[in-house]
Fold Pseudouridine synthase.
Amino acid sequence: MSYYEPLVYMVPPEEEGFILKTVLQKRLMVSRKLLSRIKLTEQGITVNGVRQYINIKVKAGDRVEIRMEEEASEDILPQDLPLHILHEDEHLLILAKDAGIIVHPTHGHYVNTIANGVVYHWQQAGITCRFRPVHRLDQETSGVLAIAKTPYVHQQISEQMIQHQVKKEYLAFVWGRFEEAKGTINEPIDRDPEQPHVRIVTPEGYSAVTHYEVVEQYAQAALVRIWLETGRTHQIRVHMRHLGHPLIGDKMYTLPEFETSPAAEEAGKRLNRQALHAFRLGFVHPGTREWTEFNAPLPADLAGLQAWLQKND
């Protein structure tokens, strides 16, 4: 049986006599589900190199280690695809995702996804990991994508997301002129009953909160920075449409006044997707316990759109 590198915790003097289970859950922040899983393996939980039950008391200076079995995504076909790696360590792989590529294989779409490329990359590097993206990006959205290498790392970042402690910032090019330079959209979102694949703002929907700030205002459009408190499907696209500022290139959530305008036609020649880019992702790194941020530069298609908008301002 092979394991990932252990997570280590040295018991300080003030925690002398703590129950091992308390140390694992309150200091290493191991979830109940993961704890139930690792305690069944031979080297899952050790104190000073010896396997232990979780109800023992620890002593100052004890070396507590947890180990997880190595896993592989055997159902994902390895495929040599270009990956824009921003950072990689034993815990995480951070990518700058291109627009137009799906993150995970779906029914009828088993190849040419981020997952296929990552599995191939790990295979070539001799790394055994299961593909675990910690968040989602729409197919046509570019930007920072984080992939966990172990169940523990995935659980840690997922918990931060639940507690709204993860910073996710986007750049979007939207239509129209803003009267307010910044604001908050607090409108519930749910499926459109007539088009289940489309989301709408509705009083019966789920809570959704989006903050925005205008970065550059152009003659007929704007570049806005957006950050989220919630993570509803299509949230940014739905909220910006509701505000009267749909994303440039977003065919699903456009508005009639922008759909056939001369500016929309010109923008369509430069962009074949919605103008949305996840440019910053920040969280407490599960390995170092330090705040970490990753940034993805504006891709060429959006940089070209920005240059055109500036020129025609």
Remarks:
- DSSP finds eight helices and 16 strands in the chain.
- The two ends are 63 Å apart (CA to CA).
- The chain has a mean pLDDT of 92.
